[in-house]
């Protein structure tokens, strides 16, 4: 009976390679192309400047995240509607710009868990947006954010002093 259990367990687990998966392979595409396509919604202090010289809390965080993937960030400043449309068409890997957990307009995207909570109110809980179904990518991003919590708070405080 034990042998049957072990055999069945191995059989089930053998089908669990590469989980969680991305429906459109975002994480693998970023790793292969070494490019992270980012839609930036201008919202000081989170993201501001230009595509050639972006600045802000989230710019710094995602620059570090891209570096951790050996990818180069490709910034594109857009309106929230344009970013949402491009994300739906899979022309972006990530959207940032002071998005919060209570944002009703970001229905076409999946949101990370809050990476910075300024209060218990969802309007003060900051998130990033990715394409729906890109579970491997979002988990990789959330692990990065969790591992860098203290640095993120420090970046936020530095940006507040500017």
From TrEMBL:
Limits of the Solute-binding protein family 3/N-terminal domain: 36-117
Protein name, per record: Transporter substrate-binding domain-containing protein
Species whose genome carries this gene: Alteromonas pelagimontana
Lineage of origin: Bacteria, Pseudomonadati, Pseudomonadota, Gammaproteobacteria, Alteromonadales
Pfam families, alphabetized: SBP_bac_3
InterPro entries according to UniProt: Solute-binding_3/MltF_N
Domain of life of the native organism: Bacteria
